[in-house]
Write a structure and sequence with these properties.
By secondary structure, this protein is mainly β. It has an eight-stranded antiparallel β-barrel with strand order 3-4-5-6-7-8-9-10. A two-stranded antiparallel ribbon has the order 1-2.
Length: 243
């Protein structure tokens, strides 16, 4: 049998009350009064939270979040993200961004001498969630790989009515820190979600071009080490997921 007076604590370590399964002891009220007079040092919430990001909780909600934002095609990007979400503590996301700038123009219709890009970027993110009154803010980090082709249409010297396309190849791999804010219909249920985020990356770049066309691509950053900022807003849906 469970007897005695039990102390009840909130997740952040704050004492929230007492529980007494049996009240056959006449001194129960005195015990509770004595315990209430005791002083408790509040547990460091950030310390306990830091440990709990990776500790599964009993009966927690697990979901798969699918998000995108077609509006970003206006700036030459089309993102698609899939995230494995554990209620109010952890998220692992795979993000694919199709890069096509300009997005809606065929290669042959792009003006002579103008640089255009085709490629993709892949990001793998780990997010640590912190619940708020409305939504959750998070911090984390990401690894990002980017593969880009830079192209320019140039006319043939002897036949101005014809043109050819010259290209250069750029590849980047980097690591970065990220932060963001996610709104869900409920933090423990399926439904609509919105994710706003930003990240700062640093990494290594490889840039290869034909020597005879180097002058055409001088306006493009080609240094081996790079830094970059990323901002995004994805709209999506949460689906319940259980192994």
């Amino acid at each position: 049998k469970k007897v005695g007076t039990w102390e009840i604590f909130e997740r952040d370590g704050k004492l929230s009350g007492y529980y007494k399964p049996f009240y056959d002891d006449k001194n129960t009220s005195k015990d509770i009064a004595a315990m209430a007079d005791r002083k408790y040092e509040r547990t460091n919430a950030s310390h306990t939270k830091g440990l709990s990001y990776f500790d599964p909780r009993h009966n927690e909600f697990k979901g798969v979040i699918v998000g995108t934002n077609p509006i970003f095609s206006a700036v030459g990007r089309f993102p698609v993200a899939i995230e494995f979400y554990s209620q109010e503590r952890l998220g692992h996301e795979f993000e694919f961004i199709g890069i096509r700038d300009p997005f809606f123009k065929k290669d042959d219709n792009i003006s002579l001498g103008k640089n255009f890009m085709r490629g993709y970027s892949i990001g793998i993110k780990q997010k640590m969630y912190n619940p708020m009154k409305a939504g959750m803010w998070y911090f984390g980090h990401e690894i990002r790989f980017t593969n880009l082709g830079h192209f320019i249409n140039i006319e043939w010297p002897l036949t101005p009515d014809k043109f050819s396309t010259v290209s250069s190849a750029e590849q980047r791999i980097g690591w970065g820190v990220l932060t963001g804010y996610r709104i869900m219909r409920k933090n423990n249920a399926k439904g609509f979600t919105l994710d706003v985020f930003g990240s700062f990356n640093l990494g290594y770049r490889s840039f290869v071009t034909d020597a005879q066309y180097e002058d055409l691509f001088q306006i493009i950053e080609q240094k081996p080490f790079y830094t970059s900022f990323h901002f995004g807003l994805n709209i999506g849906n949460v689906f319940s997921f259980r192994l």
